Predict the structure of Phage head protein.
Amino acid sequence: MSEPSLSVVMNRPFNEQTAFFRQKLGNLVATARWDDLTRSEHDAGFMIAGATKADLLSDIATAVDRTITEGKGIGEFRRDFRSIVEKNGWHGWTGEGTAAGRAWRTRVIYRTNAQTSYAAGRFAQLREGNFTFWIYRHNDSVRNPRREHLGWDGLTLPADHPFWATHYPPNGWGCRCYVVGARRESIARRMGGDPDKALPEGWDATDPSTGAPAGIGQGWDYAPGASVNRTVSTMAEKVRHWDYQIAKGYMQGVPEQVRDQLATSYRSLPSVGDDARRYAQRVLNGTEPERLEPVRTLGLLTTRDTAQVADIKGQDVNGFDYSIDPFVVKHVQERHGGEAERQRGQRPVTPNDYALLPQLLNEGEALVDAGESRATNTAQVRRELTINGETFVAIFEIRRKRRTLALQTFYIRTGAGD
């Protein structure tokens, strides 16, 4: 049995993986060094060495969360990271100053969070699956394998063996080893396990140079996710495995103040605007419906937004998000995408304009009453933002069943009309 590559791990997040990372977001920890949090402390808190300001930490946490929950690649993460560093004026971070240093730092952040969240999610699945045996599988570089990790390949031990408390992977920076479960020895053998293989002598002896057993990097002698296993499993059961739900799921448990920071940070990421633009373009290009997300999130409402909706509409929308779907993109193209717009003092909306929706939601004027939808008699609200002399107007419909404020229409005033 072969383990998925990192690209598959990132592109196919699963409930337990997402739940593990999301429960960390309620505890954003300012740290100066990478070892300010040790071992299982990483299970319940998010940190980036040297990130000590709340806004900076929130922005980076959101960028990492997006790579995990929405399966984004390292290229998008690197672009978001560059934007975050510039926006927050962050200097002095390890890797700053050279292209190689920046590439190394972003790769470490990206891969470490991908692998630990994946491992923690798998830990929850293994526990919930009640597997009798756990099997260690080596998956590091073939050219330069870590000798001890290679030696553990195929090791098959009971699920409650103390080995897993210290040797459950990843077992160091860049380690891609993994664990699979089996209920019988015969199945374990078919999965690459060897129930007759003995633990190497002195496997639990501490290496004085690292404070961990031989072959395990400093601070890696713990099982990611073990300390929050029950929380992760409970959270994962509550959300259906649908990309849109996962993209906004689990946030209700995050403290309100942090949730606001994360929502704003999410919409500040360049990749979020890019995705909205690409989504609109794919709809207008006629991409087959089954290849399109049925709904694209623009992030959660803030407490300011929910208070404004309550004031003008008398509705509780706590935990709702903003979203767009293919229907509205087509509607906007039909109503506000042609040259006739100029006669109304407006200009045609293009796919590029959708990239500005996140900025409009973060920086726009207060939400105001926009009446009701003619088609469904559903309550609507409006937000506007003027950018370079143009006023972008977005009207959202409150859809209670999906717990979302869905874009209903979108147009751009140039000042000559309404």
Residues 1-10 have pLDDT under 50 and may be disordered.
